[in-house]
Queue: 2 jobs
Job 1
Amino acid sequence: MMIRFAAVSAFALLTLAACERNDDPVAEAPAPATPAKEEAAAAVDANALTANGLGPARIGMSRADLVAVWGDDSSPNSVGGPEPEVCDEFHPAKAPAGVNVMIQNGQLTRITLIRGATTKTDRGFGLGDAGMAIKQAYGGAVFAQPHKYQALPAEDLFVWSRGGSTAYVTDPAARGVRYEVGSEGKVTMIHAGDPSIQLVEGCS
């Protein structure tokens, strides 16, 4: 009888031990993140200028919507476009320093970084950066055109993210960024938006 009791007790102890192991499993180490997951998890800088806009200001939005997020013209008495009802350029009161907008037929078509701007593009470039560095960063995606008023190294560097080509772009759905490089080989202005980024004298 004692042998049988001992056998049953041993079996009970083994069963209890097995249950305890199942109830308290050893935690598995998390699988290492793949480069693709790390890239997807990286936060997008909401303050970077892209072909589609800057922060809450999105290319294609109405002037009323733009004013709602950035305010109206900070200098309403200054000269903008020759026909403001058709095309106008101004600095919104709540926009970052050195940021101008272009409104054509009531819609935001272009955002421009001018002197004093510290905003960068989504590739990390801003005013004062070397045109050569931009070419190297974008590679074959950049299309260079001669500057209208200055000789090399001045030039215009276009990077179309949608609907662009090497020819003059007219598709209103196209989106791109134009780096305007001056005579010292440094970026002097940056334009982002629809085909209006090709305009070299404001609204014309």
Job 2
Amino acid sequence: MISYTLICDKDHEFAEHFDGYDDLQAQLKAKTLKCPTCGSTNLVKGLSAPNVGGQAAPQMPTCPAAAGCGNGGCAMKG
């Protein structure tokens, strides 16, 4: 299942779950969906952020020497 943000003609936003993009488009075309706030069936798909697995971006290592590596012996130097 995939979640899409929908927006009605009164600018109410809400999320619904679908089997896929084609399922969303079919239900929008058939007007089987309603805004839970006002009941409007005039809906469009809103902007959606892609799901990339829910993992945080990798963190860059930080230098263990708080003042930097002035002696030239830094193990992090590439």
